[in-house]
């Protein structure tokens, strides 16, 4: 088992190294000079050259690469050129809206998807089932930013029920901040519910045909009880897996949604960083997001190995 | 799921395959809508009395009317005509992304699946690529390559290639061990020939299914990138740039952004319906239930 | 210049009536949120010419001089206007006594001396001034003496500017980039959360001027407790936030959206005229290094159509070829007959006479940072195609644009805009090194005469000669004049429309 674990660990480290390298390559071939952006429209070429030297942007690429690797290993993700603060700090400052947005949209997606998925499976082939499948596909076909814009126009501007954008400004209370998340969470949650609906339905169908469910039924147990107590319990593992996968997908969705609603989250930070040519922030954000993904996958792998020692590389 | 081996399609069964495909109502609807969109994109601009890029500042922001069925935009251009022209590009982007990701993904997958020494490095590369959220990676790539139609296609092609590579690799690993492939090898058939004739042919159906979904994802992603201002140049009409352009006029002239969004929904939904139908047919293991 | 007050007008009559309802004695207290167009790249006013940097940092830092009504230079940290001797070569500046920095230390000539030296090194306007400065000394604790190589009239305007600004910093705080934003201004930095807010609080030990408030000059009253600048890069979001009452002031509203500023929580504030959109041409390399082709561009373009596309209705623009509109001392009509022809056919003839091959693309570099830039580019492209040009529109983000325009090989026209600067020699194209790289004997001669003259009336006349050269050699196309619109809560009083809005003297009516 030790061998398996160390083999996997090595594999993960290779993937991490590749992730770092991909990020570095992408960022360095990006045109646009952070020094020119920092100095404003009237800066002379000499000013820009001086600032480039100061920021280390004039050194050979390979030197910059190894320097970067060394820094990353030491946990130093560099300093944001534009914001003048450490990249990790900038990311941490923006983690809250992204975290809650992801959490709430996931919650909304699950709240929509589970009942629909379960009922579809239960009434397999019915009109409800067929329309639910189509509606799920429809939800997955809507661009989330377009839905977000329509929602802003209707619920925030026309009806005035929710704030149009932002995260409440300086010193806003927690409740106010959450209020700003309602519309974006719905825009993202609705769009993301599709996958969960389909998987819930499929897993439930598998389980509903199983013997013990039949047995429970034959014992005269109420339908609701059969479904919720027995079937759902056993269908939960694949459903949870797909919910986890959806959570990862939501991070992509959050990038666009945060921009539509001007939420100061990680996605917004990255889009701004691209526009500002803030190399370290783009590097850091890509690295942290991808790194977390690799790490979580690795931990899940480990969990499987621990639970089921037969798993071998 | 689709990674598992699928039944090869016997040549004689093609017409039967088509027939059973067309027996599915969602597929027929999807194909019909796609065909409609395609016809609109191809012939709409020719039938329209307006030129898509002709500015007419006197008639800007006009609501839908008998002259302009879907209204005019902020330059006074006919929205329906632009929608059709933009459709060409949006469809072209989606299709080209499929081609690019197929070329990259199938090559990588075949190499990894067939040559043991390449397997680990390629598998790791796929893992690393898939660790990035797709929009985030696409944004970074387009920013690096520069915003243009070709670069958006390249970036999204790269982003979606690992999905195909992974499926192709897994299937290749299975197919290469099949008796008739072994037999072909024993008969001295060259490796490239085996890869193309035997392996690739067996891979067609999972690739076809996956391609449909990549087509749909690519159209959504292109719109998202254009909306964020990091996609194709805003002077190039695509459904995504039209939404971005119309955002400013949301309450004065909502038609500018509403119709392109609707077009995206229709196109993506149709692709999904068709893809779903294909998957059900081609992949017996995944019955209608998923 | 007498017309300046007329020129600055509050937009809607409705706005005036609500304003009247709230008119009362200034109130002390209150906090305002100001929506800005984005996060400023720095708070160091020396390091950037960005308007946004000036808007925020002018509350924190102060310069020796500033601009009063009619853009007349008036003293700020200086006690009075300088004593000028040796035929305009020596400026002796007395400093105000008892001014302290936000860190509690007192300001003296050592701080000013160190700051001006930093300014000459770090700031682009400082470098421009440095070319004409022989020496700067501090003869005593309250005096600064600047000696020029030869008379240079723009000096005081350069010292008064609020971006690339000659602000006074404590002498121990000279690091580049700036470490702590410590100034002498009426407000001090309390907290900065990038992309969320910049929170400024009243500086209690502020020692302001005692003369009456006069545009940027005179007394600066600290009515508000706090000013919080909230970056809102998306213009629609600024509009929506203003309508919902989220922002007391929202800067830079797209004129198309003015109709949306309705309800009782916001109203439009128009600064008329604000500035000019400009198509800068590459005189150094490529297609437009040939003056005949630049003239063809000027002939082809119809400014009115460009302005309609950019600003919607004529409430927000004026077709005007003069580099400064009426109301400014610099306004004149020299050379403007070349402007506004909108005649692509004539341009086509001129173009073929100039030997255009019909295939080399004319590359227009623009961004969507400002929507009107992009819209003008679209319309201009149509006109230039009619004139026979092969046009290539390069729409990039602002960061790429600011970099690419530094490269003479990368573009033929780029689109920008500028407020009407109080001193014409500060206009981008007037500087030989700024992108466009317009250098010619006629330009140098005209500018030299203009800069050496100190008598304002004569300078106004000499500027006519500069403008004539501008229209003769066409280093850029001035599209016209345009107005800036902001959104303001009716409760927020005492805000003077200005290209760089400031919030001292502003107060919240109860």
TrEMBL record, chain A:
Compartments, record wording: Cell membrane
Its membrane topology: Multi-pass membrane protein
InterPro entries membership: BPD_transp_1_N, MetI-like, MetI-like_sf
Span of the signal peptide: none
Transmembrane stretches, start-end: 9-29, 99-122, 134-157, 177-197, 235-261, 281-307
Keyword tags: Cell membrane, Membrane, Transmembrane, Transmembrane helix, Transport
CDD domains on file: TM_PBP2
Limits of the ABC transmembrane type-1 domain: 95-304
Source domain of life: Bacteria
Matches recorded under PROSITE patterns: ABC_TM1
PANTHER family: DIPEPTIDE TRANSPORT SYSTEM PERMEASE PROTEIN DPPB-RELATED
Family indicated by similarity: Belongs to the binding-protein-dependent transport system permease family.
Name of the protein in its database record: ABC transporter permease
The organism of origin for this protein: Mesorhizobium liriopis
From TrEMBL, chain C:
CDD domains attached to this UniProt entry: PBP2_NikA_DppA_OppA_like_16
Signal peptide: 1-23
Protein name, entry field: ABC transporter substrate-binding protein
Compartments (UniProt record): Periplasm
Pfam family of the protein (one): SBP_bac_5
Organism for this UniProt entry: Mesorhizobium liriopis
Recorded family membership: Belongs to the bacterial solute-binding protein 5 family.
Residues of the Solute-binding protein family domain: 72-416
KW Signal (keyword) present: yes
InterPro entries found in the cross-reference section: Peptide/Ni-bd (IPR030678), SBP_5 (IPR039424), SBP_5_dom (IPR000914)
Regions that span the bilayer: none
Keywords recorded for this protein, A-Z: Signal
